[in-house]
């Protein structure tokens, strides 16, 4: 085993963890374990229920402005279990190129204000995972560091904040404040279906469609290329995007469910030669797609 990877503070390990968390970050629909209060309906008539998850353990950390933050790591059997891996198997995935082999289903709830034991106000996030995975991260330092890294990244992306990575696990508290009531769809269906049924991402709401434009080159006659410009002002980095360019279709999602784009193209394209580039200054994703010859 590579000793540089067993030291999770090393640059090599942090680089690999950072690469994986961008692929593995959980979705943000709400799941939990508890007695439902009553059957309700989301917009569009989707049935749902409300409940409160069970506590697990609590983590203290700070924002980049030294503001105190807590993460209540909760548990629920309504969250799909993560694939059961050993530490060595996780290390192999971290070192490999196919980072989609391991995803952690989780729910990151909305922040709520609480008072810590010193009587000072603080921000608390409830994060829900399956009980089996909770046991895994409690017993394995590697899985715990991996999980807290991707969870911190998910909170940063969803709530536009910056968190320091020097967290402290509280020994005598399972949660700070009161665990918040969650909302769950009674029939949850992923927007994108993975081959592995146990690792499906779940989505509660369809994200808004971003502004986009598509032009052809040359402008007259049958095109050689289609060029799409997709405006993503709320996206910080291309690594948070999931892009699928089909023969006549563009499907784009963001890991934090900020945007969703699913459109069909007027011409069939050469998929393997299509290219994408995200400008972090203008927040525009540009797709250059060669068009299949006119026959």
Automatic annotation (TrEMBL):
The lineage of its organism: Eukaryota, Metazoa, Spiralia, Lophotrochozoa, Mollusca. Residues 220-292 form the PIH1D1/2/3 CS-like domain. Residues 53-190 form the PIH1 N-terminal domain. It comes from the Eukaryota. One of its GO terms (cellular component) is ribonucleoprotein complex. Belongs to the PIH1 family. PANTHER family: PIH1 DOMAIN-CONTAINING PROTEIN 1 (PTHR22997). It comes from Pomacea canaliculata. Involved in the assembly of C/D box small nucleolar ribonucleoprotein (snoRNP) particles. Recruits the SWI/SNF complex to the core promoter of rRNA genes and enhances pre-rRNA transcription. Mediates interaction of TELO2 with the R2TP complex which is necessary for the stability of MTOR and SMG1. Positively regulates the assembly and activity of the mTORC1 complex. InterPro entries: PIH1/Kintoun_subfamily, PIH1_N, PIH1D1/2/3_CS-like. GO terms for biological process: box C/D snoRNP assembly; rRNA processing. This is PIH1 domain-containing protein 1.
């Amino acid at each position: 085993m590579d000793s540089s990877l067993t030291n999770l503070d090393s640059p090599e390990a942090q680089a690999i963890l950072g690469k994986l968390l961008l692929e593995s970050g959980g979705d943000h629909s709400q799941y939990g374990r508890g007695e439902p209060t009553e059957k309700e309906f989301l917009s569009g008539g989707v049935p749902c229920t409300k409940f409160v998850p069970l506590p697990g353990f609590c983590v203290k950390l700070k924002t980049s402005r030294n503001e105190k933050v807590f993460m209540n790591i909760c548990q629920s059997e309504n969250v799909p279990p993560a694939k059961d891996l050993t530490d060595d198997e996780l290390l192999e995935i971290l070192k490999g190129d196919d980072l989609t082999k391991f995803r952690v289903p989780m729910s990151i709830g909305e922040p709520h204000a609480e008072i810590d034991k010193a009587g000072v106000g603080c921000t608390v996030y409830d994060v829900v995972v399956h009980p089996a995975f909770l046991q895994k991260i409690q017993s394995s330092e590697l899985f715990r560091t991996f999980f807290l890294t991707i969870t911190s990244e998910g909170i940063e992306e969803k709530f536009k904040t910056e968190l320091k990575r020097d967290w402290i696990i509280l020994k005598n508290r399972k949660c700070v404040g009161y665990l918040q009531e969650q909302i769950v769809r009674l029939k949850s269906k992923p927007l994108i279906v993975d081959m592995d049924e146990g690792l499906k991402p779940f989505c509660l709401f369809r994200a808004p469609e971003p502004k986009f434009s598509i032009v052809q080159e040359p402008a007259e006659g049958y095109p050689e290329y289609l060029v799409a410009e997709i405006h993503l002002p709320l996206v910080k980095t291309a690594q948070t995007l999931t892009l699928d360019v089909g023969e006549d279709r563009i499907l784009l999602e963001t890991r934090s469910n900020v945007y969703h784009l699913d459109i069909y193209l007027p011409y069939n394209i050469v998929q393997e030669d299509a290219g994408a580039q995200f400008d972090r200054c203008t927040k525009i994703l540009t797709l250059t797609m060669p068009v299949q010859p006119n026959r």
